[in-house]
Design goal:
By secondary structure, the chain is an alpha/beta fold. It contains 11 helices and 8 strands. Strands 1, 2, 3, 4, 5, 6, 7 and 8 form an 8-stranded mixed beta sheet that branches.
Length: about 260
C-alpha cells in the first residue's frame, strides 16, 4: 500500500465503509463508527437488516452463478470492507479455481485487502485493484491483467451506484464494463430505492453522521440498468426476495434495496 493511502486513514472520525461493516455485523470498526452507525439506526432502524440481507443476496447470487452456471470469473466493483461470505470465499467454495477481482479506491478498504486475500485457494486468484469505478475504462483495463474477458465474467455492483449522482453516469459505468465482456457474462446488481421514507431520510442525513452522499432511486431507474439482458428468475426484486432455486420467505415489508441477476445474450 502506498504511503499516501496510509496517511489518509483516520480512526478518530467515522468512516462510511466501517459504518456499513458495523451494520452488517462485522468487526472492522472503531467506537466512533459505532456511534455514527447507531445514530443512523435511530433514523432508520431497519438499516442493519438491509445491510445483512444485501450480503445474503451476494452469497446466493455468487453461489448460483458458480454452481449452476459455471461462472469462474467475478469482477466485484466497489466491494467495501470484508465481513463473512465474501465473493471469493463463496465462489471458491464451489470452484476452487475461480478468479475474483475486487475493485475499490478507498484507503480503509485497501488496508484490509491483505487480510482478506489470505483466505483464497491455491488454485484460484483473489486480488484487489485500486481504481475508482467512476472510471470504468480503467477498471476494465486493470481487470484484464487478471481476468480473461473472452470468457464469461460476473460483473457485480452491490449497493454502490447510489454514490453516482446522475442517472446517465450510472448507466455509463454499468454499460462500459458490460460492453467489455463476452456473451454469457452476468450482471449482479442491487441499489437502494426510494420506497421507504425512513431510508430516504437516512441517506439524506448520511453525510452528517459520517457516511457518504448516497441517493436512493425509483425502482424503475435501477431496473433500467438491466435493459437488454436476460433476467434470471425471480427477476428484479427486493434483495431479500431473490431466491433462484427455492421460494423466498414471506415478508410483510419489502426492503428498499432492489436488484437481480441477468445474463448478457
Amino acid at each position: 500500500m502506498s504511503d499516501e493511502h496510509q496517511r489518509t486513514i483516520r480512526t478518530d472520525i467515522p468512516h462510511p465503509a466501517r459504518i456499513w461493516n458495523y451494520w452488517m455485523g462485522g468487526g472492522d470498526y472503531y467506537e466512533v463508527d459505532r456511534i455514527a452507525a447507531d445514530a443512523g439506526s435511530a433514523v432508520y432502524p431497519e438499516i442493519s437488516t438491509l445491510a445483512k440481507e444485501s450480503r445474503r443476496f451476494l452469497f446466493r447470487a455468487v453461489r448460483y452463478l458458480a454452481a449452476e452456471k459455471g461462472i469462474r470469473q467475478f469482477l466485484d466493483i466497489g466491494t467495501g470492507l470484508p465481513t463473512v461470505q465474501n465473493t471469493h470465499e463463496v465462489a471458491q467454495s464451489v470452484a476452487p479455481e475461480s478468479r475474483i477481482v475486487y475493485v475499490d479506491n478507498d484507503p480503509v478498504v485497501l488496508a484490509h485487502a491483505r487480510t482478506l486475500l489470505t483466505s483464497t485457494t491455491d488454485e484460484g486468484v483473489a486480488t484487489y485493484i485500486d481504481t475508482d469505478y467512476h472510471h470504468p475504462e480503467i477498471v476494465v483495463a486493470d481487470a484484464r491483467h487478471i481476468l480473461n474477458f473472452t470468457r464469461p465474467v460476473a460483473v457485480m455492483f452491490m449497493g454502490v451506484l447510489g454514490h453516482a449522482q446522475r442517472v446517465a453516469e450510472r448507466r455509463r459505468i454499468v454499460h462500459t464494463v458490460l460492453e467489455s465482456t463476452t456473451a454469457g457474462s452476468y450482471l449482479v446488481l442491487w441499489d437502494g430505492t426510494d420506497d421507504d421514507a425512513g431510508y430516504v431520510r437516512l441517506c439524506a442525513e448520511s453525510a452528517d453522521i459520517g457516511g457518504e452522499s448516497y441517493r436512493p432511486r425509483p425502482q424503475s431507474e435501477i431496473r433500467a440498468l438491466f435493459d437488454g439482458l436476460e433476467p434470471v428468475d425471480p427477476g428484479f426484486t427486493s434483495v431479500a426476495q431473490w431466491y433462484p432455486e427455492e421460494p423466498a420467505p414471506r415478508s410483510d415489508r419489502p426492503i428498499p434495496a432492489y436488484g437481480g441477476v441477468a445474463r448478457k445474450p
